[in-house]
Amino acid sequence: MTLKRISLLCAVAIAVSSLTLVSASAAERPTSVAGCAKPTSKAHEPATVKQPSAPDKKLAKTMTIKTNCGVITIALNPAAAQTVTNLSTLARSKYFDGTFCHRLTTEGIYVLQCGDPSAQGNGSPGTWKGYKDENLPTKTILTYPAGTVAMANSGPNTNGSQFFLVYKDTALPPSYTIWGKIKTGLPLLLKVEKVGAYKVDDASGKGYYAGDGYPVQPIEIKSVTVR
User: Fold this and answer.
1) Any bridge partners for residue 213, and if so which?
2) How far is residue 96's CA from residue 224's CA, in Å, rounded to a whole number?
3) Which of its termini does the chain have fewer beta carbons within 10 Å around, N or C?
């Protein structure tokens, strides 16, 4: 199973409202994580940001993602210098501020995917060209251990702004640039996993739990900073 950009089956308006479930038994499951605030952002078109042409001479070392559910800090990996530069540029431009993590996968692979302001899984910075893959895994079995932060893509050298946070050990093809490691916030991601993911039934318009879909507990990125 690859981490290609996907189209959501529902609008963000549904994602930030209460989830109506097809199954009565499913309705007994929690639909929120304690301590999470109600999101206030809306999906929007990705901003146009000038794409860096070369890695920063002095790379940022830490990324801090403030969400409506808590803070996630990431140690940035200098082995992915161009990727770190590009994401740092986006963070400084407030590209990620007021966006949603649009995909949660709880079966087969264990990731939360973020970085698309449109929340549709196909957005990227306006005018950017896909950039090279870096620091790909060398292990043949456990390619993306828990705590890994990597780029989502739709094929070789198609990186943009979307990335995924690995909250449990995950085996994927070694095709996704690893650019960081989660320092704090992993317990939060595990709580989000327990609440689950959902899709929407086209015929009834009702939500149902799915192993790959939109997080039942909306994860809103309030701000992203690097230093």
Assistant:
1) 104
2) 6
3) C
What is the C-alpha to C-alpha distance for residues 226 and 73, in angstroms, rounded to an integer? 10
b/e burial code for range 131-158 (CB count within 10 A of at least 16 → b): bebbbebeeeeebbebbbbbbbbbeeeb
In order of start, what are the domains of the chain with their CATH numbers? Answer: 62-226 (2.40.100.10)
Ramachandran angles phi, psi of 59, nearest 5°: -80, 145
At residue 192, φ and ψ (nearest 5 deg) are -65, -40
C-beta neighbour count of 166 within 10 angstroms: 26
Q: What tokens does 88 get? A: 């740092």
What was the pLDDT predicted at 21?
Answer: 47
Q: Is-contact 15 118, C-beta < 8 A?
A: no
Question: What is the average pLDDT score of the chain?
Answer: 90
Give every strand in the sheet of 163-166, ordered side by side: 99-100, 220-226, 62-67, 70-76, 178-184, 148-151, 163-166, 111-114, 103-105, 212-215, 197-200, 207-210
